[in-house]
Structure formats: C-alpha cells, structure tokens
Give the backbone structure.
Amino acid sequence: MIQSHIGVVQMRSSSDVEENLACAHKKIQQAADKGVDLLAFPETFLYVGRDNEEKHRVAQSLDGELVQTFRDYARKYDLSILLGSIYEKTPDDPDRLYNTSILVNRQGELNGVYRKIHMCDAPALGYNESDGIKPGNIPVVVDHEIGKIGLTICYDLRFPELYRDLTARGAEIIFVPAAFFLYTGKHHWLPLLIARAIENQVYIVAPNQWGEHHEGRVSYGSSVVIDPWGSIVCCASERPEVVSTMIDLDYLKEVRNNMPILSHRRPELYRQE
C-alpha cells in the first residue's frame, strides 16, 4: 500500500511578511505533530498586498533568506513543504517578477521549481497580473517520495491542456496553490478542481487563501484534496487552518485500471493548435 499524509494550509495572508512567516511556522509545527509527510501552502502566502513596489521589495531569489528558512524548517520538522508561491526576482526583467512555486523535500533540498505559466488578466475583476508578473514557460513534474508531483498555480486551473500534459508526463498528484477570488471561486473553484481530478485520474491538492486581505481583495477558501474519482476527501472550513488526509496511490492505480480513459484517447484526431 502506497499511502502518504498530505496537509493543506488555508491562510489569510496580509502585507506583513513577518506576520505571515510566523503563521506559516506555526502551521508547520502543527503539521509535524500530526505526522504530515508533505505540507502545502497557498499562492503568495508570504505577501498579499496592493503595492507593486512593495512586491519587489519582498521578492527574493531562490537562494534568498526566505527560501532558506523553509529549507531549514523542512529538515528540522522532517517533512516536505510546498511554498505555494513567492515573488521571485527576475534578473533579466527587473520590472517584473516571477510567481514561483517551490517544493522542498524533507532533506531541505529544492525538489522542484515552477514559475506560473498563465497570467490572470481579468478586466471584470480589475486585475491584470501580467503588469507585474513575468510568465514562466516550463511545465513541471518532479519525482518525490510520495509520488510523481505536477506543479501548477491558481489561474492555471482554467487550462485543462496543462493538466493533461502533466498527466502525460507521469503526474499522479497535482498541486494547485491559489489565491482564488471570492467572486469567481464560489462558482468555479470546486467544479474546476473536481473536473481536473476526474479527467486526469489524479489527486488534486489545492491550498487556497481565504477571507479579506485588504479592501477590495477577498479570497474564496475551500482548500481541498480531491481523489482520482473526483471525491472531496478533505476541505477547510471558513477560517485559516490546516486540514490533512491520506492519499493512496494504490487507489489511483485501481481507478485508472477500472476505467482506463487515458489509454482510450485518440490524439491523432484532435486538432493541434
């Protein structure tokens, strides 16, 4: 039996990095006490604010102090940590940052780095992510002790092609750290997550921001783990918290064997863009 204990953190991050960092540390301690193997944080969990200049001030490189802090925590508490995303400096484009997800294994090593590919430019929400964020261009699947992990971030969820590509690369568990808006989240968050799980027969692990961060910015919450059949196996309530569950890759194999939809595809007939 191939089982692992996965935890997701639901946060209400602010513009105070030190406060967010202290909250994250407490959640790691709680997860370690529960015996969690991998703990996942939401998107931009160390800073949610309106000031673009402030985002640049708090941004760091992969070898910066903040990332090193979580590498130290992983070793100290003997668990893997997904830094849902941080703002990463881009030396080749000083006017923009990457929105970067980082997977640290329990040895404190950088196991995977993914830079958000799809930018959330949504006029209806008054939000234009590409103004300050540079899109990445590399899908990422990494080998980890709990299985093959695919990395995505928030708005990526609306692009099923990416999730099919990650599955084709061997992903068994796909993470979706997010700061999903309340307005869209109450209509789209869970339906899209469930669809991605069902159509790819993977575990979806989606830690989300929750609540009001500042005036005009409210996140939906409902941080969740969904199994390959599309069933919700744990979901956070309306508050910041850690929820956890066991994931079972034997069950994933059973679902895929009983309904082998991935082998029934006929890609030669599908239009290629």
